[in-house]
Amino acid sequence: MIRIAICDDEKNIRTYLSSLVRKQNIECEITEYASTDEYLSDQKEHDLLFLDIEMKSVASGMDGMSMAKQIRATELTKQPIIIFVTGYEKYVYDAFDVGAFQYLLKPIDEQRFAQVFRRAAEQIISEAEQQKKTLVIQYANTSKAIPLDHIYYLESQSHKVVIHMNEEELEYYAKLGDLEEELQGQFFRIHKGYLVNLACIDEYNKTEVTLVNGDKLLISKYKYPDFVKAYLRYMQ
Description:
Blueprint: E1 2-7, H1 11-22, E2 28-33, H2 36-42, E3 48-51, H3 64-73, E4 81-86, H4 92-97, E5 102-105, H5 110-131, E6 134-139, E7 142-147, E8 151-157, E9 160-165, E10 169-173, H6 176-182, E11 187-191, E12 194-197, E13 201-204, E14 208-211, E15 216-218, H7 224-235
Parallel strand pairs: 1-2, 1-3, 3-4, 4-5
Antiparallel strand pairs: 6-7, 8-9, 8-12, 9-10, 11-12, 13-14, 14-15
Protein backbone atom coordinates (compact mmCIF):
# COMPACT_ATOMS: atom_id res chain seq x y z
CA MET A 1 0.00 0.00 0.00
CA ILE A 2 1.28 3.46 -0.95
CA ARG A 3 0.95 6.07 1.79
CA ILE A 4 0.02 9.42 0.25
CA ALA A 5 -0.17 12.88 1.82
CA ILE A 6 -1.88 15.87 0.22
CA CYS A 7 -0.96 19.21 1.75
CA ASP A 8 -2.83 22.22 0.36
CA ASP A 9 -4.70 25.04 2.07
CA GLU A 10 -7.55 24.85 -0.46
CA LYS A 11 -10.05 22.14 0.41
CA ASN A 12 -11.35 21.85 -3.16
CA ILE A 13 -7.81 21.14 -4.41
CA ARG A 14 -7.26 18.50 -1.73
CA THR A 15 -10.55 16.85 -2.64
CA TYR A 16 -9.76 16.94 -6.36
CA LEU A 17 -6.28 15.47 -5.88
CA SER A 18 -7.71 12.70 -3.70
CA SER A 19 -10.23 11.85 -6.42
CA LEU A 20 -7.48 11.74 -9.06
CA VAL A 21 -5.38 9.42 -6.89
CA ARG A 22 -8.31 7.03 -6.41
CA LYS A 23 -8.85 6.87 -10.17
CA GLN A 24 -5.39 5.33 -10.62
CA ASN A 25 -6.52 1.94 -9.24
CA ILE A 26 -3.52 1.55 -6.95
CA GLU A 27 -4.00 0.50 -3.35
CA CYS A 28 -3.20 3.52 -1.23
CA GLU A 29 -3.90 5.38 1.99
CA ILE A 30 -4.58 9.11 1.59
CA THR A 31 -4.19 11.69 4.34
CA GLU A 32 -5.11 15.33 3.74
CA TYR A 33 -3.51 18.31 5.47
CA ALA A 34 -4.71 21.91 5.33
CA SER A 35 -1.39 23.45 6.40
CA THR A 36 2.32 22.76 6.78
CA ASP A 37 1.92 22.91 10.57
CA GLU A 38 -0.74 20.21 10.42
CA TYR A 39 1.48 17.98 8.30
CA LEU A 40 4.60 18.37 10.44
CA SER A 41 2.77 17.89 13.73
CA ASP A 42 1.29 14.58 12.52
CA GLN A 43 4.76 12.98 12.17
CA LYS A 44 3.46 10.14 9.99
CA GLU A 45 5.67 8.60 7.35
CA HIS A 46 4.51 8.95 3.75
CA ASP A 47 5.73 7.51 0.48
CA LEU A 48 4.39 10.34 -1.67
CA LEU A 49 3.61 13.96 -0.83
CA PHE A 50 1.58 16.31 -3.03
CA LEU A 51 2.55 19.74 -1.77
CA ASP A 52 1.28 23.24 -2.52
CA ILE A 53 3.93 25.98 -2.40
CA GLU A 54 2.25 29.33 -1.71
CA MET A 55 0.55 28.22 1.46
CA LYS A 56 1.06 30.07 4.70
CA SER A 57 0.48 28.33 8.01
CA VAL A 58 -1.25 30.41 10.66
CA ALA A 59 1.18 29.48 13.42
CA SER A 60 4.61 29.24 11.78
CA GLY A 61 4.12 31.14 8.54
CA MET A 62 5.92 28.28 6.76
CA ASP A 63 5.09 27.78 3.09
CA GLY A 64 5.34 24.54 1.14
CA MET A 65 8.86 25.12 -0.17
CA SER A 66 10.18 25.82 3.34
CA MET A 67 8.51 22.66 4.59
CA ALA A 68 10.09 20.63 1.79
CA LYS A 69 13.53 21.98 2.78
CA GLN A 70 12.87 21.04 6.40
CA ILE A 71 11.82 17.52 5.40
CA ARG A 72 14.98 17.05 3.34
CA ALA A 73 17.14 18.34 6.20
CA THR A 74 15.61 15.87 8.64
CA GLU A 75 17.24 12.48 9.15
CA LEU A 76 14.30 10.27 8.24
CA THR A 77 14.47 6.56 7.54
CA LYS A 78 11.87 7.17 4.84
CA GLN A 79 11.97 10.36 2.76
CA PRO A 80 8.78 10.97 0.76
CA ILE A 81 8.71 11.58 -2.96
CA ILE A 82 7.59 15.21 -3.31
CA ILE A 83 5.40 16.43 -6.15
CA PHE A 84 4.72 20.15 -6.02
CA VAL A 85 1.26 21.31 -7.06
CA THR A 86 1.15 25.05 -7.65
CA GLY A 87 -0.26 27.79 -9.82
CA TYR A 88 3.13 29.43 -10.35
CA GLU A 89 6.00 28.43 -12.64
CA LYS A 90 8.55 30.65 -10.87
CA TYR A 91 9.38 28.02 -8.23
CA VAL A 92 10.45 25.30 -10.63
CA TYR A 93 14.21 25.72 -9.99
CA ASP A 94 13.68 25.83 -6.23
CA ALA A 95 11.78 22.55 -6.58
CA PHE A 96 14.85 20.87 -8.06
CA ASP A 97 16.93 22.09 -5.10
CA VAL A 98 14.83 19.97 -2.72
CA GLY A 99 14.84 16.95 -5.00
CA ALA A 100 11.22 17.23 -6.11
CA PHE A 101 10.06 14.37 -8.29
CA GLN A 102 7.82 16.56 -10.43
CA TYR A 103 6.12 19.94 -10.65
CA LEU A 104 2.41 20.06 -11.54
CA LEU A 105 0.78 23.34 -12.49
CA LYS A 106 -2.76 24.29 -11.52
CA PRO A 107 -5.27 23.81 -13.02
CA ILE A 108 -4.19 20.18 -12.94
CA ASP A 109 -4.43 18.25 -16.19
CA GLU A 110 -5.85 14.81 -15.43
CA GLN A 111 -3.82 13.01 -18.09
CA ARG A 112 -0.61 14.68 -16.98
CA PHE A 113 -1.40 13.79 -13.38
CA ALA A 114 -1.92 10.12 -14.29
CA GLN A 115 1.46 9.97 -16.08
CA VAL A 116 3.35 11.56 -13.18
CA PHE A 117 1.54 9.50 -10.56
CA ARG A 118 2.24 6.25 -12.41
CA ARG A 119 5.98 6.97 -12.58
CA ALA A 120 6.09 7.92 -8.90
CA ALA A 121 4.15 4.79 -7.91
CA GLU A 122 6.47 2.59 -9.97
CA GLN A 123 9.49 4.08 -8.20
CA ILE A 124 7.91 3.59 -4.77
CA ILE A 125 7.00 -0.03 -5.51
CA SER A 126 10.46 -0.74 -6.92
CA GLU A 127 12.14 0.74 -3.84
CA ALA A 128 9.84 -1.28 -1.57
CA GLU A 129 10.82 -4.49 -3.37
CA GLN A 130 14.48 -3.60 -3.03
CA GLN A 131 13.93 -2.76 0.64
CA LYS A 132 12.81 -6.33 1.25
CA LYS A 133 16.27 -7.48 0.21
CA THR A 134 18.11 -5.11 2.54
CA LEU A 135 18.24 -4.27 6.22
CA VAL A 136 18.14 -0.50 6.78
CA ILE A 137 19.72 0.64 10.05
CA GLN A 138 20.60 3.93 11.69
CA TYR A 139 24.39 3.88 12.00
CA ALA A 140 26.78 6.79 12.67
CA ASN A 141 23.92 9.30 12.26
CA THR A 142 23.04 8.03 8.79
CA SER A 143 20.74 5.44 7.26
CA LYS A 144 22.71 2.44 6.03
CA ALA A 145 21.22 -0.26 3.78
CA ILE A 146 22.83 -3.67 4.20
CA PRO A 147 22.08 -6.40 1.62
CA LEU A 148 20.64 -9.42 3.41
CA ASP A 149 22.95 -11.78 1.54
CA HIS A 150 25.92 -10.02 3.19
CA ILE A 151 24.70 -10.94 6.67
CA TYR A 152 25.61 -14.27 8.31
CA TYR A 153 23.75 -13.66 11.55
CA LEU A 154 22.69 -11.03 14.06
CA GLU A 155 23.65 -11.26 17.71
CA SER A 156 21.99 -9.62 20.70
CA GLN A 157 24.37 -7.97 23.14
CA SER A 158 22.74 -6.02 25.96
CA HIS A 159 20.73 -3.23 24.29
CA LYS A 160 22.59 -3.54 21.00
CA VAL A 161 22.64 -5.85 18.00
CA VAL A 162 25.86 -6.95 16.32
CA ILE A 163 25.57 -7.66 12.59
CA HIS A 164 28.07 -10.31 11.54
CA MET A 165 28.93 -10.01 7.85
CA ASN A 166 31.44 -11.44 5.41
CA GLU A 167 33.90 -8.55 5.75
CA GLU A 168 32.95 -6.59 8.87
CA GLU A 169 30.81 -6.33 11.97
CA LEU A 170 28.46 -3.47 12.80
CA GLU A 171 27.00 -2.72 16.20
CA TYR A 172 23.95 -0.52 16.72
CA TYR A 173 21.05 0.00 19.10
CA ALA A 174 18.14 -2.31 18.26
CA LYS A 175 16.05 -5.19 19.58
CA LEU A 176 16.56 -8.65 18.15
CA GLY A 177 12.83 -9.32 18.54
CA ASP A 178 11.96 -6.47 16.18
CA LEU A 179 14.47 -7.73 13.62
CA GLU A 180 13.10 -11.26 13.94
CA GLU A 181 9.71 -9.99 12.83
CA GLU A 182 11.12 -7.80 10.06
CA LEU A 183 13.36 -10.50 8.58
CA GLN A 184 11.12 -13.53 8.97
CA GLY A 185 11.32 -15.92 6.05
CA GLN A 186 15.06 -15.69 5.37
CA PHE A 187 16.19 -15.43 9.00
CA PHE A 188 15.34 -17.61 11.99
CA ARG A 189 15.94 -17.05 15.69
CA ILE A 190 17.68 -20.23 16.79
CA HIS A 191 18.44 -18.89 20.27
CA LYS A 192 17.47 -15.83 22.30
CA GLY A 193 20.81 -14.33 21.31
CA TYR A 194 21.04 -15.30 17.62
CA LEU A 195 19.07 -14.54 14.47
CA VAL A 196 20.56 -16.60 11.64
CA ASN A 197 20.45 -16.16 7.88
CA LEU A 198 19.08 -19.49 6.63
CA ALA A 199 20.94 -19.02 3.34
CA CYS A 200 24.27 -19.09 5.22
CA ILE A 201 23.84 -22.42 7.01
CA ASP A 202 26.38 -25.08 6.09
CA GLU A 203 25.17 -27.82 8.44
CA TYR A 204 23.32 -28.30 11.70
CA ASN A 205 22.50 -30.78 14.43
CA LYS A 206 20.31 -30.67 17.52
CA THR A 207 22.75 -28.54 19.50
CA GLU A 208 24.42 -26.16 17.06
CA VAL A 209 24.37 -24.56 13.63
CA THR A 210 27.51 -24.23 11.52
CA LEU A 211 27.60 -21.33 9.09
CA VAL A 212 29.43 -21.16 5.77
CA ASN A 213 32.07 -18.91 7.34
CA GLY A 214 32.83 -21.56 9.97
CA ASP A 215 31.08 -19.90 12.92
CA LYS A 216 29.25 -22.32 15.20
CA LEU A 217 26.18 -21.09 17.10
CA LEU A 218 24.19 -22.79 19.83
CA ILE A 219 20.62 -23.69 19.00
CA SER A 220 17.96 -23.85 21.69
CA LYS A 221 16.39 -27.29 22.09
CA TYR A 222 13.02 -25.57 22.22
CA LYS A 223 13.70 -23.84 18.90
CA TYR A 224 15.08 -26.86 17.07
CA PRO A 225 11.82 -28.40 15.69
CA ASP A 226 10.58 -25.05 14.32
CA PHE A 227 14.05 -24.26 13.00
CA VAL A 228 14.14 -27.47 10.95
CA LYS A 229 10.71 -26.71 9.47
CA ALA A 230 11.72 -23.13 8.63
CA TYR A 231 15.02 -24.23 7.09
CA LEU A 232 13.46 -26.93 4.92
CA ARG A 233 10.72 -24.56 3.83
CA TYR A 234 13.30 -21.92 2.89
CA MET A 235 15.39 -24.43 0.92
CA GLN A 236 12.45 -25.64 -1.20
